């Protein structure tokens, strides 16, 4: 992950636990997240980093998939949009992401939907 460069460890966890194309069992994802957080040197900072990186990453992927579906005429990417909406809504529900959730609610409220209307 991350081309073997030094980066925020929470990003790799997000990449594994919030996959864009496949569902990860929620119980397993929660267990692995808690284990990673608890093993970090500062669990509070890890939780904050995870929440923000997860929301940012999933918003970026959502945008890429919309571009691929609309501009590049690859409609199969529409199938992934509800999953990405669910990831984003869950990410923004984390207490650590409260300021980002408030911003999103004000400027992009559709991202807080349940993903049924991408």
Textual characterization of the structure:
- This protein has helices at residues 9-17, 26-39, 43-70, 81-93, 98-107.
- The chain has 118 residues and is mainly alpha-helical.
- α1 (9-17) crosses α3, α2 (26-39) crosses α3 (43-70) and α3 packs antiparallel against α4 (81-93).
How would you classify the helix and strand content by structural class? mainly alpha
**Shape estimate:** globular
Number of DSSP strands?
0
Largest sheet: none
In whole angstroms, the N-to-C terminal distance is 28 Å
Question: Portion of residues in helices?
Answer: 55-70%
Give average pLDDT, whole number. 89
Q: Tell me the β content.
A: under 5%
Q: How many helices does DSSP assign?
A: 5
Short description:
This protein is mainly α and 118 residues long.
Secondary-structure topology with pairs:
Blueprint (H helix, E strand, L loop, with lengths): L8 H9 L8 H14 L3 H28 L10 H13 L4 H10 L11
Helix pairs in contact: 1-3, 2-3, 3-4
Keywords:
5 helices, 118 residues, mainly alpha, 63% helix
């Amino acid at each position: 992950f991350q081309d073997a460069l030094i980066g925020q460890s929470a990003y790799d966890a997000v990449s594994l636990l919030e996959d864009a194309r496949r569902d990860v069992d929620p119980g397993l994802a929660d267990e692995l997240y808690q284990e990673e957080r608890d093993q970090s040197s500062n669990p509070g900072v890890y939780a904050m980093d995870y929440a923000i990186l997860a929301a940012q990453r999933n918003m970026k992927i959502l945008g890429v998939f919309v571009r691929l579906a609309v501009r590049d005429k690859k409609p199969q990417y529409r199938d992934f949009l509800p999953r990405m909406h669910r990831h984003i809504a869950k990410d923004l529900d984390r207490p650590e992401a409260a300021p980002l959730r408030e911003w999103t609610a004000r400027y992009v409220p559709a991202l807080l939907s349940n993903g049924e209307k991408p």
